[in-house]
Amino acid sequence: AELYLNGEWLSPDKAFVSVFDRAFMFGDGIYEVTPFYCGKPFRLQDHCDRLKYCLQQIKIPFDCAILEHLMMQALSRSGLANSDAAVYIQISRGKAPRTHYYPEHAEPTVLLYAFPVVLENFHEKRWKVLVSEDFRWQRCDIKSTALLANTMSNEEAIAGGFDENLLVHDGHFTEGSHSTAFFVMNNTVYTHPEGPHILSGITRKVVLEICRDLGISYEERPVNIEELDRVEEVFLTGTTTQITIVESLHSKEKQIFTAQKGEITKRLQEEFLRRTR
Ligand code: PDD
Q1: Is 59 considered catalytic here?
Q2: What are the structural domain ranges in the chain?
Q3: What residue owns the CA closest to ligand 1's atom 10?
Q4: 122-276 CATH
Q5: What CATH number has the domain spanning 3-116?
Q6: What is the DSSP string of 187-247?
Q7: Do residues 49 and 37 lie in contact, with contact meaning Cβ atoms separated by under 8 Å?
Q8: Of 24, 47, 202, 206, which is least packed with CB atoms within 10 Å of its CB?
């Protein structure tokens, strides 16, 4: 498998960036993960739009026009041209002497590579999830490579034998460390509204479209931790998570939610799978 770095296709052991790259020093970069099911891009425009939005928000000058072609090349160079796969894209501000302000003349560092995604039986996967405090920053809408709070949280979950975290800010659920959270109460699907406290997930958007198309009612509003006793289903979504059923939620001390039903999640999974085929 080859990866793309600043205009060249290289094997991973030959791909290097400067120690003065701002992604290394500051986490000053953004990334995107775009799925390709059976080799066909899934919601490519949405992923490109989010990437452009993030670049604009942190003022990295970069023309995204070449990315589609590079993604297709990354897939074929990794033997994934007809598979279920995803492409990781990372764009940092580039190399410059260390200053907190943005340097004037930095050339963005561009990295791209493809990796396989396993869709087989994802609907049978059930996660145990740790509820923990959302101590991330106030701009979670930017898909930044500065993911320390996310990795600290996820590490705590994995080390404790859980599969993911569900983050709580001011008494309500925001999202997972690398996934969007959904709740079902009384046949209505709930998810946190878009804005600075969550990443605008593309899978989130697809799930809400499916709800609309299947006539499942939904509301974009935060779910309070106190409402958990009325929650019947919880699921997490994302490009690498697809739609994953949450079997149980746990605080550090005890189990605080056990899945009651699963019908709505299953209907959404089936329709999601159909749309990727
Ligand atoms: N994670 N929320 C967070 C914090 C995420 O990191 C992700 C994706 C999502 C889901 O977004 P989408 O449906 O567009 O993939 C929500 C990526 C895949 C990652 O970090 O690997």
Answers
A1: no
A2: 3-116, 122-276
A3: 238
A4: 3.20.10.10
A5: 3.30.470.10
A6: TEEEEPPSSTTS---HHHHHHHHHHHHHT-EEEESPPBGGGGGG--EEEEEETTTEEEEEE
A7: no
A8: 24
| C-alpha span between 206 and 87 (Å, rounded) | 19
Taking CA atoms only, the protein residue closest to ligand 1 atom 6 is 178
- For residue 18, the tally of other CB atoms under 10 A from its CB is 13
Residue 2 DSSP one-character state: -
pLDDT tens, the chain, 277 aa long: 899 999 999 999 999 999 999 999 999 999 999 999 999 999 999 999 999 999 999 999 999 999 999 999 999 999 999 999 999 999 999 999 999 999 999 999 999 999 999 987 878 899 999 999 999 999 999 999 999 999 999 999 999 999 999 999 999 999 999 999 999 999 999 999 999 999 999 999 999 999 999 999 999 999 999 999 999 999 999 999 999 999 999 999 999 999 988 999 999 999 999 999 8
What ipTM is given for this predicted complex?
0.97
What are φ and ψ of residue 261, in 5° steps? -130, -165
Q: Is residue 178 in contact with ligand 1, taking CB distance under 6 Å? A: yes
Strand order in the sheet with 85-92: 8-10, 3-5, 109-116, 85-92, 29-37, 40-41
- pTM of the shown model: 0.97
**Token match 């996660």: residue?**
127
Backbone dihedral angles phi then psi of residue 6, each to the nearest 5 degrees: 45, 50
Which residue is listed with tokens 């791909």? 15
Q: Closest ligand 1 atom, CA of 86?
A: 18
One fold for 3-116 and 122-276:
no
